[in-house]
Amino acid sequence: MTSQVSSPAEQADEAVVGEQRKPAGEKDVRRLDRVIIRFAGDSGDGMQLTGDRFTSETASFGNDLSTLPNFPAEIRAPAGTLPGVSSFQLHFADHDILTPGDAPNVLVAMNPAALKANIADVPRGAEIIVNTDEFTKRAMQKVGYEASPLEDGSLDGYSLHEVPLTTLTVEALKEFDLTRKEAERSKNMFALGLLSWMYHRPTEGTEKFLTAKFAKKPDIAAANIAAFRAGWNFGETTEDFAVSYEVAPAAKAFPVGTYRNISGNLALSYGLVAASRQADLPLFLGSYPITPASDILHELSKHKNFGVRTFQAEDEIAGIGAALGAAFGGSLAVTTTSGPGVALKSETIGLAVSLELPLLVIDIQRGGPSTGLPTKTEQADLLQAMFGRNGEAPVPIIAPQTPADCFDAALEAARIALTYRTPVMLLSDGYLANGSEPWRIPDIDDLPDLRVQFAQGPNHTLEDGSDVFWPYKRDPQTLARPWAIPGTPGLEHRIGGIEKQDGSGNISYDPANHDFMVRTRQAKIDGIDVPELEVDDPDGARTLVLGWGSTYGPITAAVRRLRRAGEAIAQAHLRHLNPFPRNLGAVLERYEKVVVPEMNLGQLATLIRAKYLVDAHSYNQVNGMPFKAEQLATALKEALDG
Fold this sequence. Notes:
Helices cover 34% and strands 21% of the residues. By secondary structure, it is an alpha/beta fold. The strands form six sheets. A seven-stranded mixed sheet has the order 13-12-14-15-17-16-24, with helices on both faces. The longest helix has 20 residues, at 218-237. The radius of gyration is 27 Å and the shape is globular. The protein starts with a strand and ends with a helix.
């Protein structure tokens, strides 16, 4: 969904909850400036769909928002168990925000497992809505509750709403020709209706969505809509919910434009399509399904009308092999994967370095090593991207910083690959891939021109005066070799992984030539034109926080908190990780202390120390979850005081 925003401004990431009230019939309406809601339930309870729908309506309403889906790796974990809990957190506000929030103001727990798995994150005084129908003795014992948490006083510090969601849903759908089990499946829509009433969310979009989703099953569509409306009406009529809440649109948070809610993987997909159109090249994706990158394959397969071809290969190696072949044939070639797939693709990435062909290798990082944590986030593939190939095989690396920024990162990766004739690594991660935020739909006229010129004929004259085509004769500015499309008369040339002779591209085992080619390939990467690093330092701080990738939101939120508390602290965020911006060394020299928060054990800090001889201080987390703003603010305050 899209919404219009009329004026720009910037506000703090966190703000105090308002207390303004106004009557609305018999119930009060309280005005808030932000809310954090977490839906949690069994992996079959539809929590991701519920969160997605609430998010879509919130985006159409015009709030700023940030989301954090969190789901188990198992396709269907045992029902009612802690490993099977799926959750979706949404932070929405009337001002500019940066993270999904540290702690939920509202927890919707569909069963005992959901309550137990999430209660530690819920602050005292927050609202908890529980589906009492699921709090049976057997279900509670399954997750270790010896007594009912609804009765033992352990939830006395919260605003607890006990709602028999399953019973109410079945009762609301008794006029439909459904079994009880079929009717129970709609309880997530009842919960969505209730929360939509509590926070004055629009309803039309959800009803249209359900009608379209179940177009071939109109009875199921009607039942879900009825459950959704019943949840809304329950909130309106029950005495248990005496107050509803309003969060005004974030009219001052964004520049003028048309906005839509977008996830990182969807933004990446759109960025790849846009890059192919701006380059006037067909887009080819050679891929093998892997969490959390598969959504890009799914999305791009829908866009054949834009000249997109998707190939689901039999394995990771075949996927990148097909993509490299497409690059040789003149396509904008892409392969998508996660860390385990990058390991399998490494030899072909090295081949692409040797062939000097444009290829986008998109790594949606997840917890490792090996299979690791398929549905959890991490940014621990940086050193793999930098060095994970045999021989000297340098590859440019870029990293988006937010879900919406994945669109621009895809365009930038394509620019580098096409201009410099090189494979490019793009490092997103599960947090960005599955999270979402408002995205300003760009004007096509503002997108970069990525068109390239293919080789057309001979480019070199031999000593005997004959004109020939040399596939490794380089552009003096970019050091890129010509891109010769197979089948072009006169441009026949050898191709393969054995070292090339400078210029002619013939097979060469000459030591001096190999030394020259290795240094030339490195010089090409070192010479890539990337923007200088921008530093946010309004107060002349002595400490710099340096980040990369998805840590941007939590770092920025933490820095804002410290500045509001009177602390002077500078911030910079790297998009280009190879090569680094040319001014990075000068920036680092300006500060007495450099702190590098990462969701790994210090990989960027290691590179910074090695290249610039700076004593960078690492702050690391590898628990599969993104940083929390308060956690980072505390760590940065300790660094400032240390």
